[in-house]
Amino acid sequence: MAIVTGSTPFGLGQTYYSGRTVDTSNYGGINLEGQVCTFTNVTVPSGSTTLRTPLNDGPIQARLVRNVSGIALLPGRLVIYKALFQDRRVDGYSSTTAQRVAGVVDPWLPSTGVPANDLFWIIISGTVPVRRSLSNSAADDAEGDTLYAITAATSQATTAGRFTRWVGTFSAAETTDGTAFAIQRNAIGLAMSACTTAGTNANMNVRIRIDP
Prior knowledge:
With 212 residues, this protein is mainly β. It has one domain (3-209). The chain has one helix and 13 strands, in the order βββββββββββαββ. A five-stranded mixed β-barrel has the order 5-7-6-8-9. A two-stranded antiparallel sheet has the order 3-4. The two termini are 23 Å apart.
């Protein structure tokens, strides 16, 4: 993955330990936690594991964080910061309606995700594939929809770390309080592609715009 600005110890689709055993008694790369870099936005053509083609969707901004959730975090899911470790460590997926999220787990990671205690990238800006809700059966998602995190039983549930679209309206009473205000304030971004009800649990391109 080509870097547009900044320097990085490794690219998107990789982790700090890169499959090696994580030393939990003496974390490697602590000095790298929180680093932000900008990458060229690319796609991997069907059937290719190495060839990457630049997209015309602008750059991707990513932050390097440590997974302290105790589980492997999977690509394309929304994660939240650990208390007292803002911008440095994440401890699970988003699990409440319109929760403020840290970012999107690097969509280019292997399907097994990032192991517990390893360092990896979360996307905080740019257009990337994000995992849809498991229960988006009520309506289709349309290009331009405002998207927000949904509720799940726990921050490690299968239903956690996912999004849905906002279909309501914002009344004057909700401009400073209430769920509608939380959705407006903590929206993860805009849908950049449409997805039908048949696409439940599928990836959808989202223009991420997460406030720092």
